[in-house]
Structure formats: C-alpha cells, structure tokens
TrEMBL record:
Keywords: Cell membrane, Membrane, Transmembrane, Transmembrane helix, Transport
Protein name: Permease
Stored InterPro entries: Mem_transp_PIN-like
Location in or out of the cell: Membrane
Keyword Transport (UniProt): yes
Domain of life, per lineage: Bacteria
Transmembrane feature ranges: 54-74, 86-109, 115-135, 147-166
Amino acid sequence: MTPIILALISSSSRVTTAMRQALLSPIVFAAIAGLVVSLNGLNAPDALTEPLKILGGASIPMILLSFGASLHAARPLSDPTFRAAAVTATALKVLGMPAVACAVGMLMGFDAEKLYAVCILAALPTAQNIYNYAATYRRGMVVARDTVLLSTFLALPAMLLIAFLFGR
C-alpha cells in the first residue's frame, strides 16, 4: 500500500512521475531490499545489521514523538474545512474497515475464531505512519492527524463491540 499512498500524496500532477517517485522512495526501496535479502536467505554482517536494529527499535518511539508534537496547540476537528474529511476517514477506519474485513472473511469461509481475529485487527487505530507520510510530503496533515487521534480513541469501543458481537 505504501507506493500507492506515496503516489497519491505526491506533489507531481503527472501520474507516471508520481508513481516513479513513489517506487523510488527510500521507504519502498528499503522494503524491497529487505524482501530480496530475506527471500534469498542472505546474511548481512553484524556491522551493518546492528545499527539498523537500533534505528528500527527507535522508529516507533520517534514516530509517536512526531505525532505527539503535531498535537501541541492543535485543536482536533476545529477547522471546518477538514472536519468532514477527518470524520469520514475515521468512520471508514473504525466502522467500515472491520465490516469489510468481516464480509471478506465470511466470503473466504473463515471459521469464527479467524473471523474474530480479522475483525479485531481491522478495528485497530489508523497507523501513525499515515501521519508521518502526510507530514513528510506536507499533504493532508490536518486530516491525517485528526484521523489518527480519533481512531485511536474510538478503536477500543469498536473492538469491545466486535467482542460483544462475537460473544467474547
């Protein structure tokens, strides 16, 4: 999904340029390189992997700090220009995504246990990396920030509702 997201938020008006920029972004390049290494059973020397492990371990705390900093002096949903988009994105994430996941799981013949797991995972909050992409490309930052915040608070009630519906 990352190349698609990066192409959509690209500042380029040309589709081919946006797609090329997305596919050549460091995020996508690193993911492809990691996949190639993993699939080929290659082992990189410790001198290379140890700093990458440290950097990887810092990535989640750093993205949370970045998101937290975006909340300083912010008033979620205060800008009427972006309110409808943030509420719509939040509703799609918290309600729509679990419903679609449930429907797809049912079509695939999942048993109740797998169906429950799929629905719970789909109800998790919007990932922080969405805000990170928006901030990096300076596109949709307010909507991304508000959606991440709202879906974080609404994910637990959604998961409790799913648990109730599955008799848990």
